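Sequence of Integrase core domain (Nocardia farcinica).
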Amino acid sequence: MKLQIARVHGENFGVYGARKVWLQLNREGHRVARCTVERLMRELGLRGVTRGRIKRTTVADPAADRPADLVQRRFAPAAPNRLWVADITYVSTWSGWVYVAFVIDAYARRILGWRTSTSMTTALVLDAIEHAIWTRERDGWYVKDVVHHTDRGSQYTSIAFSERLGEAGIQPSVGAVGSSYDNALAETINGLYKTELIKPRGPWRTVDHVEFATAEWVDWFNDRRLSAIAVISHQRRWRPRTTLNTQPSTPLGCHTDRSPDSPGRFSSTASPSPDWSRLTRR
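Predicted 3D structure, token representation.
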């Protein structure tokens, strides 16, 4: 079992703690208790990563026209392609700063578009939104009337960016400067990106190294990563429903009276198996 635990931990950027390693093992059909995973990870010296504090990167243009806040901190749309959120983060390299822009579908928690650059200009966010539009249209989705929510950075309130949104039929929305809560979902994705990829794999040499690693991380994040709300996120991948080949029963070893996604205490008696069928949608 130690080999399987080390494999799952290593295949997922070394960021999973015991809970997610346990979830992944059970999804693969390995019958193991969570407390066993916790104990074996301690013996192996493996642990998950923890997020640091978010730093502000937004620089507002006080003279720019600002669209209204159409979101009002409501980041739970009823369907995909209703709300996209976007933001810019940064990476320190030996050759200077690299800036990374992401566009995320708020329903699926899926990165639709991204771009890296050595300058934090309007071209950076334009490339990211073009990538997102291309991704959705390639998959047969219409982008008209999507709400695109950002902070009030000058790149997002620029004339060129606003015109491109208008051409695509996308509605702009902005939050308040300096308040991470007004763009909380995008800030969360940035934090995960820094915690799961940038910090553990640094120091970084050039923009090319950051770009290649980001492409790998985005692919993993979109299609394989278990999130803190694993059940919900896997139901929202908008992909054909698949069925696992195995249906794990109550694991051997110690037992717990909690489901994979709810707190609880360990119990000395066996409890009903979690509803693993809820994890079959991707």
